[in-house]
Design goal:
Elements: H1 3-9, E1 14-18, E2 22-27, E3 31-37, E4 40-43, E5 49-52, H2 54-59, E6 67-70, E7 73-74, E8 77-78, H3 81-95, E9 105-110, H4 116-128, E10 133-138, H5 139-146, E11 157-162, E12 167-173, E13 176-183, H6 187-202, E14 204-205, H7 208-218, E15 229-236, E16 242-248, H8 249-272, H9 276-285, E17 287-290, H10 299-307, E18 311-313, H11 320-329, H12 332-338
Parallel strand pairs: 1-9, 9-10, 11-17, 17-18
Antiparallel strand pairs: 1-2, 2-3, 4-5, 4-6, 7-8, 11-12, 12-13, 14-15, 15-16
């Protein structure tokens, strides 16, 4: 047993799903060890980090002047380099139980239409967070592996990964992506649509967290079996005082219709560009939905109705990308095949 293999027993390799809304860290042999919102709260005066993840999310929209809650990721890519680096550092240390002397190999999932500059930013922030090697893989590919699709076989698999910042659509065969499309419309865009809708219709201002809560509780892409309503509290724009209104699922569906439409159009484009043999496989196997955005009620029904294809939801949609990237840690041959240079 050489030194290398002794070392690999204490393997510190990590797979990271660096998402716009949530960051998940998968540690080899232990599964998903960190699953927290991609938010950092900073003290503006001292530049110190006050909170990361769940605690920082509680602070969103509620901070005093000297503290800012920052979301360093935008549309699936890094918007604030320094903050991302510190956030990664925090999550990596958390995954390693605060050990300081670890230099893990790290696999990170990135959107498919990422530019070389954005790619470098992800690699650099991981290296600065003390990684020894960094591999980048496309999120859609990782999601397909995490959802348990047979991606290495010669048959078409279609995966739609709807995250916080981007929706990734990919057709995969023989461990490669035949066609992929990335649209920057996903969960966050849906929250914003709800905020705009309530502002326009009721002159009610609400925050991001409230909008997200509405989306989760009564948001839908297709009429529900039994109607839902929800009380929403916010600030009335005209009178300037706090106010509570009741909204219905039909209103929220109307608010979300444009976002859902954009995702379905991108899906159509992908289906149009698919080679006929693979189209036959997809009409047989259908489309698999992953990512947090796919939890929108009746989204599968709506896509199925619009495309005429069977649509299924992955077992653990939120963790698919992390699980898929995690599987590559133990399958380096596969990783070499599908990592992007």
């Amino acid at each position: 047993m050489n030194f290398r293999s002794i070392f690999s027993v204490f393997s510190s390799d990590l797979a990271i799903d660096l998402g716009t809304a949530n960051t998940l860290v998968y540690a080899r042999g232990r599964g998903v060890v960190v699953n927290e919102p991609s938010i950092v709260a900073l003290n503006k005066n001292s530049g110190e980090i006050c909170a990361v993840g769940k605690e920082a999310k509680e602070m969103l929209g509620r901070t005093p002047g000297n503290i800012v809650a920052i979301k360093p990721m935008k549309d699936g890519v890094i918007a604030d380099f320094k903050v991302t680096e510190r956030m990664l550092n925090y999550f990596i240390r958390k995954a390693h139980n605060r050990k300081l002397l670890v230099h893990p190999r790290i696999v990170i999932g990135v959107p498919s239409e990422i530019t070389p500059v954005e790619k470098r930013a992800v690699q650099d922030s991981a290296y600065r967070a003390k990684a020894s090697e960094v591999f980048l893989v496309e999120q859609a590919m990782a999601a397909a592996i995490g959802a348990g699709l047979p991606i290495t076989e010669a048959c078409g698999n279609m995966v739609v990964d709807i995250g916080g910042g981007t929706s990734e659509i990919a057709i995969i065969s023989l461990s490669g992506i035949v066609f992929s499309r990335s649209v920057r419309v996903a969960g966050n865009e849906m929250d914003e649509a709800i905020m705009h809708y309530l502002k326009r219709k009721y002159s009610l201002l609400i925050g991001e967290r409230t909008a997200e809560k509405i989306k989760i509780e009564i948001g839908s892409a297709h009429p529900l079996e039994k109607p839902l309503t929800m009380e929403v509290r916010g600030r009335n724009l005209i009178e300037g005082v706090p106010k509570t209104i009741t909204v219905t699922d039909a209103e929220i569906r109307e608010a979300l219709s444009e976002c859902v439409g954009t995702i379905i159009n991108a899906l159509r484009v992908a289906l149009e560009r698919t080679p006929p043999e693979l189209s036959a496989d997809i009409s047989d196997r259908g489309i698999v939905l992953t990512g947090g955005g796919s939890l929108l009620k009746n989204l599968d029904k709506r896509i199925s109705e619009e495309t005429g294809l069977p649509v299924s939801l992955a077992d653990d949609p939120l963790a698919c990308v992390a699980l898929g990237t995690g599987k590559m840690l133990s399958d380096f041959k596969l990783l070499r095949q599908i990592s992007i240079d």
